[in-house]
Please model this.
Amino acid sequence: MSINEAQMIAYAALPDEALSDLARRGDRDAEEVLIKRYNRVVRQLARPYYLAGGDSDDLIQEGMIGLMCGVREYDGQRAASFRTFAEICIRNRLYSAVRAASRDKHTPLNQSVPLEIPFFDGQSSCFGAMAGENPEDLIIGRERVQDALSDVRKQLSDFEAKILGYYLDGLTIREMAKAVLRSPKSVDNAVQRIRRKAARHLQAGDISKG
Model:
């Protein structure tokens, strides 16, 4: 076993806060371990909005940028866990991406990232996306997406409902395929059907309100 491999194994046993502290001091190995540890969290936070009308998996990439911000700016002296801070940073980055993508499209994703009340002083760049926003609008947006997903579930087959659950849990196509004993292509087709049903539901809701 190489020195680097042994170090990575040792780092894997460290808590998030210790890894973040090392990363802030320039330890890229610690940063890599923490990023991999939170990869699924990013997917979990991004996917409801992508499913409900986002343009592409670019949302997941934006979430990863938010995670990097959290890794590099977390201060262990503050009164919350790294996970809380990281999730706020991820959601704020997603919020910025969704706002930028939907500003000229009037899509249901406008103002739809869940609201989190920061435990911190708000000076971090991770919180910049939320400045000046109306909390009531954010809460309404969150509830709208959750209600839409709840309604969409009623339109799914048993197989599609199972895939949706795995999808929102952050599993990859291959991981889902292994879990349901189907081919990756079959699972990907199910995900695409779910997206189309979600998009149709949201469009119908907009028309009925118009």
